[in-house]
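@channel sequence for tomorrow's demo:
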Amino acid sequence: MITKATLQDVPALTTLINSAYRGETSKKGWTTEAHLLEGKRTTEEELAAIISDTKNTFLKYTENEQIIGSVLLVEKGHQLYVGMLTVSPELQNSGIGKKMLAEAENHARSLGLSTLSMTVVSVRSELIAWYKRHGYVDTGEREAFPSSDIHINISDKPLEFIFLEKRL
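structure tokens (generated this afternoon):
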């Protein structure tokens, strides 16, 4: 079931997102960034701020009262930004991510928006290919990957964000 996340969901969402992107548990799935980045993907404080912001919609995918997927949707002008698409590493490749993307599209339509956009780390070719199979195209726009105490680059390659978008 896909529903809107609340502040009560922040601890479970933080654990899910960090487990899917970073550290040893993330290596159980195919979308890990553990070979590129150390540190946390997010914090409870960041997620609480995101969920509290009225321009954001944070969706959760729940089965048996456990959050196993999530996605952040942000209204940005005439586009809906899709971020932090997450599926529990053990359940990746089971169609949950596809369902979350479809729900993002439904949300965009409900807001009268015809374009979805996102950023993906440039060296994540398998993830970029997955998004392209779901209708996203590379806009050609690039942005430097931010360095911080949370996102610690351990890659031997320079990282940058590529911008993808899909028109509905």
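heads up for whoever presents: The beta strands are 2-4, 37-38, 56-63, 66-76, 79-87, 115-121, 137-144, 152-153, 160-167.
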